[in-house]
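Troubleshooting log. The previous structure file for this entry was overwritten by mistake, so regenerating from the original sequence record. Sequence copied from the archived sheet and checked twice against the printout by T.R.
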Amino acid sequence: MWAGCALAVLAWYGCVKWLPIDAFNRLPDPVTVVVEWFNPDPDYGLSVFTADYYLHIWYSTYRAFTAFALAVVLGVPLGILMGWRVRINEFASALLGLLRPIPPLAWVPIAILVFPGDEPAVIFVTSLVAFFATTMNTLLGVRSIDPDYFRAARCLGASPRDVLTDIIIPGALPSIFTGFQIAMGAAWFSLVAGEMIAAQYGLGFMILESYNLVQYPTIIIMMVTLGIVGYASSAAIRLAGKRLMRWREESLGLSAI
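Regenerated output below.
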């Protein structure tokens, strides 16, 4: 992992410093970015030593996790119902299939018109892609459950609640957590699009603002920060999923691998 990162930084430095291409020469090299990032008195006003840097991180993290939570609360029940009940799937699948290809940026004008203030609009746009990812992976998880489990439950007189808690949720949980990881990543890149248009704080807002002010090192700093925070968010979900599904690893004999 570290070797791959070092190779990428070296390639970045080489493109900026050694290639005779104007497009690359306009970019800041890694040394310039690192010096600005860890400068107690940054030239462009943002570094690890400034309060505004963490304020932008806080706003973006708050929006991303709020949108993710909204996607989970709405997407998981809908995905379970679509996979469990044929009528609900027939009712909702066409609408989801129509709305899912619409990119987040296309929703920004509608969100600004419908929701008061910047925060609800940005959170709405951020939650859309995460909602679709959560719903579709939950649906896939329910459909992947062996039908014999449902037939056995009916033969044993299980109630719908028993089927839900003992068959559907445990059986779909691996796909649900896969959807969570995809949804968190989707929330972050949708967030940047929303913040660039309808926000006054956040990492996405600062990327666009730094471009307008010709502060190119700050653009790279915000992009790398976005990658670090997004990676940490997905890693936390992955860790939670492993702990909650330890029983599955043990049943498959993977706990010792």
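The mean pLDDT is 87. Archived copy saved in two places this time.
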